[in-house]
Queue: 3 jobs
Job 1
Amino acid sequence: MSNRWRIFHICFLTLIFLLLTLSHYHELLASIPIIGQVSIASFLGLSRYAVERFIYILLIVYAGWSLGLRFGIGTLLASGLVMLPRAIFISSTPIDSTIESIAALTIGGLGITLIQMRRGWHQQRQKLRGIRVALRTSQESYEELFTNASDAIWVHDMHGKIVIANRACEKVSGYSPDELIGKNVAEFMSRDALVIAREIRTKLMKGQAIDQRYDQRLIKKDGTDAIVELFTRLIRADGKPIGFQNIARDVTVERRLRDNLRLQIHKTLMAQEEERKRIARELHDDIAQSILLLSRQLDILISKNDSKIPKASIIELEHIENIANDAYKSLQRYARDLRPSILDQMGLVAALNWLTEELGKELRIKTSVKSDKLPPLPSEVELAMFRIAQETLNNIRKHAQASAVNITVQLTSNNLKMSITDNGKGFSTSRLTGDLAKEGKLGVLGMEERARLIGGTLQIKSEPGKGTTVIARAPIWTRQKELVPFI
Amino acid sequence: MKAKTRILLADDHPLLREALSQVFSNEKDMEIVGQANNGEEAVNLTSQLKPDILVMDIMMPKFDGLEASRQIKKIAPNTAILILTAYDDDNYVLGLLEAGAAGYLMKSARGQDLVEAVRAIRAGESVLHPKIIEKLLKQAMIKPAGTVDRKIRDILSDREMEMLKLLATGMSNKEIADKLYLSLRTVKAHMSNIFTKMTVASRSEALVEGLRTGLITLEDIKQGESSE
């Protein structure tokens, strides 16, 4: 209620109260005649005092209604204070008057109470209505969210039967939500996909939360594959598991692009290797041999005992031979850096030894290579590992400012593991391939690709100030099936 | 008159082979008995001609010098192999020596060095840097030892055993001659016998073989190091 009205009510109330009180005590204020009361009183057959008492009731109720409980009670008390003295001390019929007064007060009190109660009910009903509306709005919002979400969301029970599915499921699966309800999720999954699904299910049932999305393959209505990024959650009711909620994002296009990118990188790497091999061979076979021949012929010329060449010329020729020798050595070095024959002929460990010793000599740092006894390895594996090591050592040379480099090669059941550690200044790593490309660290991308090409993995651990460790792993005996990527 | 050292050349570059051949033919105590164009030819010609020394390029088609060395050591163990290599990287070289090479030289080595290397191998002298020998022997010890061949122990005379042990310490032929109060010629002859009996063709092979068969131990070698 606005303040102006309140003030009006207060004033009005006070005015009437005063007038009434004056009238009630009129004998004491004989000079002020009040005619209105008398006529009403005689009409109703009641004494005018009774009528006044009645009006007090009205005032009390009016106060309670217009100004609230407190004013009501206040007016009740004030009325009591006014009526009772008159009834007890001044009235000619004290008992009746007192009873009337008390009755009036009681009725007034009841009135206020009733008004309060009604108000309370009203408020409660308002609140209930508000809650119901809010609930309905929230439910509608949820339904709207569920139905229209851009991600496909569906819930299936413990056996895999789909209970609800939203509209987006249609785009992902090719089936409308109505078609989906009742089907079993296994219908949409290949054997490999089922393996993954079971693993996820087992993890969730054990109580392990899976925070990350994982890749999964689904078979669409038209028979083609869709690759989705899936997030699965176990739903419980009363603490018991009742089903699984899945939120999926169609990433088929993204993955295809990524695979294309990988294919490109693969092709580039292969082409690069071929090129290097070719150049190394040409450098060695053609040019180097020619220079060697040059050098040798000069040597023969110089050392012929019956030579008629003057001494001064001999010195010149020796000089030329030295130049030829140096040129030969340089060529050998270039050829070797491109495609070291030590790798092809002596194997990975010998090649790693060579790499680290060269680095150690160049930077004057300590290096070591420790290796398990290795069986003969497939040449692609040796080459990939070698290139990874070569790139890593290049990075160390360029950035690390390290004083010690260690390479360890281990053979476990059917995996080859190569760890390269340096105690340099380290760096902060980003996990996403995209980020690496952005940062210009393409060499690392190449290393990852090389590892992936032989079915292996690459891991780089580094912290600023704490050095770097590069770990490359590769299977030695390849499996028949291709492993579906999993988390 | 002493027999000429019979040399087989193997290199896939005809002009280089020609130049090599010129180098050796100028020497009176050496003759070229054949030339091979690739690894396979090298093996075949070696088994046919049984040269004293095979001077071979490491990089050849068909199979490279490494593979050829392994095969040749099986069919002609008394032919010493001198490898011409592009790299003198320790790791590389060790592989060569393990395959049975008697020694190695850089491809760019001077004619004179080649000639002297051939002579040294024939004489049973060491053509390897002591550090390489040490590495080689350490590596030989890492390999599982074959059964101790009693026969060799019995075949070698006491004198020859003594000489083998001195060989292990890294002494040159001259030093051995002085120590045992023998002439250089006698020492060389003994060397030749030792090599034949052990079916090897050079000092480094003898050392490796000696270690493998248990005739000498690392202690014998270490004695040499401490005395130097």
Note: Chain A is about 60% helix and 15% strand.
Job 2
Amino acid sequence: MSTVESTTYAPPGEAGSPVELEERYKNFIGGDWVAPTTGEYRENPTPSTGEPFCEVAYSGAADIERALDAAHAAKGAWGRRSPSDRAAVLNAVADAIEENLEMLAVAESYENGKPVRETLAADIPLAADHFRYFAGAIRAEEGRISEIDENTYAYHFHEPLGVVGQIIPFNFPLLMAAWKIAPALAAGNCSVIKPASPTPWSILKLMEVIGDIVPAGVINVVNGPGAEIGKALASNKRIAKIGFTGETVTGRLIMSYAAQNIIPSTTELGGKSPNIFFEDVMAADDAFLDKAIEGLVLYAFNKGEVCTCPSRALIQESIYDEFMPRVLARIGAIKQGDPLDRETMIGAQVSTSQLEKIAGYVQIGRDEGAEVLIGGGRPPLNGRLAGGYYFEPTALRGHNKMRVFQEEIFGPVVAVTTFRTEDEALELANDTLYGLGAGVWTRDGSRAFRMGRAIQAGRVWTNCYHQYPAHAAFGGYKASGVGRENHRMMLEHYTQTKCLLVSYDPSALGFF
Amino acid sequence: MSREGAESRPAVTASTEAMEMIHRLGAAHGALAFFQSGGCCNGSSPMCLKQGELPLGPQDLWLGEIAGAPFYIDSEQYERWGKPSLIIEVSPGAAEGFSLEELEGVHFVTRTAP
């Protein structure tokens, strides 16, 4: 902290900040900091003020080739390391992240605009835990043996794919990187990573911390424009798999490149997640009701820039008039401001284009007749923050056919509507192109189970929301993508199956 | 791929600035095609790609052309949007994803006609 009394961290590079800052950042390739072949760098602004704070490499396709050279040079030795050796490296990465928790939390908050209290409590601890989880998972992994007959056996081995490409989104730059890197490395792969264009830097601070722990070439990070280096990576013949989180058209492109190169892909493409509140949540005014109210307000977590943002709140009509005022009071109590202030609950959107888009959607909502229950505009922030990309936490009331109920806004905007029966709740929940997350709130366990099984989404939070433990599978139904992240099943997404079919029978088959 | 029937108002148009940018990108990259995106992160953005970069599927609805570039949207997505007329504009700030205008430091925006 900059002073004993202050709850606000000094920005990176300023006196008292836990984050050291250089003027310019290169790529991380083969264990070294390597200047981009283009010689170009781009200014990197902080969403909290809109001011640039460093420059980051603006690479070209040749830099992806360099990174792939480094990864291919490393893959043999890394893939042959014993599972316990690889697990030791992953555990050391987790330790290093934890030892630098405050530094990484402040860096992540400053670059992305998310409140530091979220990065301190969620993003960075979860990233460390992800490495520990896969360190454990790989040691418990084993192949299977099939007895075909008494002399013939099929031995199944999990072999690394080799070199994989991974494209990271801007909303959780470090946690989403951990989700992709940890299982890939545990399984014995090397990775070339393309961070999101609005958030190229915090992962470089992570590389400063873990660059000496991970063998050279095992992780490589190249920054630059998606249209050039994202494509150069995703369509490259030298990757054995591509992992992507982002929107649907780029997701289709990724899958199309993968099809052309005959390699696997996993894609996570967002959603419009329903959060359903049955009338029995108000059966008592107790801790559970309080939790449910917070559960609705979680749409503002990470300023709504979450693929699983519970952006459609479906509330049983019989409780709407009592329940909603309590929700609105909770939204009204959200403290918005400097992301580096530990008391701030909602920070700034990641970029001006995101900010414009959110404002555009709120206008679309007004035009199609939605009622603005709270928020709806830019907050009046002064001083340094006046140039930041802030948008008020907003609630719109309307119906499920409106565009604000159908399109992912990726901001702190919840669209609220009511339902009368369980059947209607289910119909509304599934009336969307997407199927990533959903929430169900009820004191009736049987109803929770029925709803959870019937909702077409990969993750149904039941009496909770926005929890992301490493041991729970995450991924989409419908247009929300293909494949899963988290859980040890991820190791299958990052390995190839080798079958050794062995005969111990001395006799010929007898055909020839 | 299917086509919308003849309607009084074009299903997609572009602002003068957007048209200029499309011509500029066309001069640098060759024939272009637009795909309206959906979902995560930059989901409401129109993605400007080289023509042929993304193979067309049966769900891709051709809405029209802007500055000579065909514009497609997922037919179910268009239905859920309420079949509006779209106006493509261009704004400062680099695009995200693989959209070509990122290289010019701008991004296309899809707006709907009132």
Note: Chain A has a mean pLDDT of 97.
Job 3
Amino acid sequence: MIIQTKSDIVPSEITPKEVFDDRRKFLQQAGFGLLASATGLLSSPSFATSGNLPAQYKASRPLLKLPNFSKSKYGAGEKLTSFEDITTYNNYYEFGTGKDEPAVHSKLFKPVPWTVSIEGQVKKNKTISIEDILKLAPLEERIYRMRCVEGWSMVIPWIGFPLAQLIKWAEPNANAKYVEFISLADTQQMPGVNLPILDWPYIEGLRMDEAMNPLTIMAVGLYGEALPNQNGAPMRLVVPWKYGFKGAKAIVKIRFTDKIPMTTWMKAGPTEYGFYANVNPQVEHPRWTQSSEKRIGAGLFAGRIKTQMFNGYTEQVGQMYAGMDLRKNF
Amino acid sequence: MPAWIYEKTSSVQWLGFVGKVPSKKLAARFKVAIFLLCLIPLLRLLWLAFHDDLTANPIEFVERSTGYWALFMLLCTLSLSPIRLLTGRAWQLQYRRMLGLFMFFYACLHVMAYLWLDYAFNWTDIVKDIIKHPYVLVGASAFILTLPLAITSNNAMIRLLRERWKQLHRLVYVIAILGVVHFLWLVKKDLREPMLYATILALLLAVRIYYRISKRKA
């Protein structure tokens, strides 16, 4: 199904021609011709919900134009978290440690042009542009629950493709047991990287079978549009049965390894954050309750809901951990 | 000097409190002003709640905000004595009880937000949370220790307990340290804000310790 955008725009909102032309020139210079028209972007349904937000919180207009995408069976019946909440309540320390900071500080971030390099245990090292990545596999909408290790959760309509498709293209060799995802750490564009709060760049990792699992996706959009900068544009990892921090954002490098990768949060707090980080209500965290969670957008009096094993995806992923002590491998 | 300067000076004479003890009337007005100022954090929360503007995670916002203001009031309370030690002025001490009770007030709101909004009085989960998470245990201990102080904060109790009242109310230092540790422990990685509070508390305690030691020497 194709999402159609209605054009119910008031004349005052239409970008003046000079500004529009300027923008077009700028974008052409940036080497990126495929652009949605300014009017189409302004009237898109996803922005309607952020109508009464202060200007600084509004998502910057996505520069990337996504091809058509199909719906998928995932997440049927779930109540979606609003676009406003998804784009103003973010953990993205590269843009500041406050939840509201990424939306503000990522406004000038440039997700295009973008290339991702593939290295490590592969047939040969190579690079691929974000435009070519979008051609690797058809895009689909995946509505997933996202459970943060801090005890809150959202339901997000991602647009992406199975990571397995990208891995197939990357051609890892027989020694590849793990995949490492390395995020951009650009001190110019990302003010948070100047603070020694984490060991930059942000590194996350998956075991090969986890990476190949059909649930694991590379997200390039949400709510029918290209990914906003504060959500990890232009491409981020989404692993719905793991805590949110596993989802590396703004990925610039994918490295295949034979040894278990040392991730950023493992380095920052080895007793708190493990490599697996599977959502597990039975394994307590020293700081936060993991047996229940607060659903974002449910309101002041909604209380908590029970956290499910593997965030409710046991059927699809449980067999990968058969026989493993998940208390030890947290 | 032209005459208007003198006029100006006299019109700001009420600022004289900086240099000397204010009159009873002025001191009473200050009390009302401080009382109203201390209500602002509560009014702000109500305003934001009314406008559905308590961020995407309203429960956590209310918990954080009330906890933050309880700690703020506590540090204000603890700053009055160091001011006396440093400047020799003591009249500000008359506001100590009110500030202390405002700390208790915000601490109560903080605990209510936790018990009611966050855990809906689900006592099994609450007990589990307190036992398993050291920062919650530290915070809960701090709150329990404020109860005897709040109960004995009236004049009758001061008369009744005398010397023991003084000893009892030294608990406030324990509460302050527990409060700051509670904050430090709950923050994931960016410790700048709780460290600021820890530093202010350390400075306030350092002034007391310094004067205590020098008094003993003398």
Note: Chain B has one domain: 23-217.
